[in-house]
Each structure stands twice: as C-alpha cells, then as structure tokens.
Amino acid sequence: MRGLFISLEGIDGVGKTTQVARLRDYARDFGREIVVTREPGGTRLGAELRQLLLHGFDVLPRAEALMFAADRAQHVDEVIRPALERGAIVICDRYLDSSLAYQAAGRDLAVAEIRRLSMWATGGLLPERTYLLDMDPQASHARLRHGEDRMEAAGEGFQRRTRQAFLALARRDPERFRIVDAADPVETVCTAIRDDAAPLLARLRHTDPVSPNGGPTA
Ligand code: TYD
To answer: Could you tell me what percent of the chain has a pLDDT over 90?
Structure first.
C-alpha cells in the first residue's frame, strides 16, 4: 500500500477526537493528502448505521457486531483502501480493534469470531500503527461533554472490560500498537503520538505515492 494507515482507539471519553485533529495538523508537514475518518459513520451507509447503533433502540449483541462490521466493510472499500492507494495518510478514529474490545469483551461474544468477522469485512486490512489511548473508565466517563449514547450508557463494568480488552490486544501485538497514557495533559499525549509517528510519516517523503510498489523515488 502506498499510503499510511493509522488508527486511534480507546474507551469513550479518552480524548481521541482531539488527538486525531492534532495528528492531522502535524501530518500536514509531510506533503501527502490526509484523510481523517471515523467508525462508525465514515460513509453514507455508515452515517445511517451510526444513528441506529448509537441513538436507536436496543440492538442484540450479534446484530450489533454485524452492523459495526457492515459499517467497516463499506468504509474500507469506499474510503480507506482507495485513499491508501492514492498514497494518502489515513487517520481513523476507531477501527477493527473497537469491535474486538466492545463487541467481544464488552458484549461477551467470542473474540475469535469477531476477529474473523472483522477481517472478512475488511479483506484483512490492518493499520500500520494503532495508538491506544488508555485511561481509567471512571475518569474518562467524567470527561464526556455530551449526553450518553447507547454504548456509553452500557455501564462502568462494560467500560472496564472494554479497557482491559484493548490493553490485551495491544500487548498481543506490540509491533502495531502503542499504548499512550490518556490521563496525561493533552500536550503530553500529543507529543507522545507525534514522536512515534514522525518516522512513519518521514518515510513517506522518500517514497513515491504513485509508483506501483510505493518504492523509493529515483
Ligand atoms: P465514538 O465515535 O468514539 O463516540 P463519540 O462520538 O461519543 O466520541 O464511538 C461510538 C461508539 O461506538 C463508542 O461507544 C464505541 C462504539 N463502537 C463499538 O462498540 N464497536 C465498534 O466496532 C466501533 C467502531 C465503535
């Protein structure tokens, strides 16, 4: 893939949206198109699914898992893959690890099944780097500035299981994940992410976005 795919993950209220915006600003220096997107809701279909998932009536766990997977399948095909093929930097606010943490651990479905479902939905596309913004759920919940949506209202036990699941995913795949302490001040979190992302972004300067294998420029 010619571009760079980065995702940010974490339980609700850890400040992902702020950090996504900060990373986008930083990435502007690297001379590539930047695509900032999110799940659920990165496409027209996704916007409808997001409304149903977050503000609709009760959805049973398996149906919920399938709806997040449907959102992701559409998102990858319509937005993420084409952007990466154009050589863009894609910064995604939540991706497949959210399903592994929220649907598998939070809702008690089998993690292997959710992983298979997600990998099928995305054709196996994984980010090159995933920043896990980690924080105690009580503290993160206190930060939420809007009314609770359906997922946020699922209770502290749910958020705790989800947090532990994110940490377990990160430990299982240390090459892709970086765990960032989201209880730190915004600037500290932002600097930690920038420092880590800098070499990945710098690499793009030395590769041609349109050469067939994204190889070095002549
Ligand atoms: P988010 O957009 O981060 O919420 P907000 O707009 O309040 O910041 O995420 C929406 C919710 O959807 C969040 O509670 C996590 C949940 N979610 C899942 O349960 N599974 C998934 O696969 C994804 C992508 C999100």
So the answer is: 79
